């Protein structure tokens, strides 16, 4: 487990990883920053899946260009979004 909102938090990971789970704080900008930091870190394998939990009460931000939304599921006040990593 890493705090991906902290600069450099993903440096030195032994990846690449095929599956990443992210549950950032439900603040509006936390999901956007989390996805950007994960996408830019170089720790994702081609075709990796990033699963992110976030609030269903606000519109989620657009993901970085190298993460493509593949599925979204609502559970009460939470959304779980699935992104595929593309090169």
How do the helices and strands follow one another from N- to C-terminus?
Answer: EHEEE
What are the segments in which pLDDT stays under 50 over at least 5 consecutive residues? none
Question: What is the number of helices?
Answer: 1
CATH architecture call = 3-Layer(aba) Sandwich
Which class in CATH terms?
Alpha Beta
Largest sheet: 4 strands, mixed
Widest β-sheet, arrangement of strands: 1-2-4-3
Shape: globular
- Quick one: how many beta strands? 4
Tell me roughly what share of residues is in helical segments: 10-25%
The chain-level structural class is mainly beta
CATH fold-level assignment: Rossmann fold
- Cα(first) to Cα(last) distance is 25 Å
Radius of gyration: 12 Å
Instruction: Average the pLDDT over all residues and give the rounded result.
Output: 86
- Structurally, the number of domains stands at 1
Strand content: 35-45%
Determine the CATH superfamily: Vaccinia Virus protein VP39
Task: Walk me through this protein's architecture.
The protein is mostly beta strands and about 90 residues long. It has one domain: Rossmann fold. Helix content is about 15%, strand content about 40%. Strands 1-2-4-3 form a 4-stranded mixed sheet, covered by helices on one side. The longest helix is centred in the middle third of the chain and has 13 residues, at about 30-40. The N and C termini lie far apart (about 25 Å). The model has no long low-confidence stretch (mean pLDDT about 85).
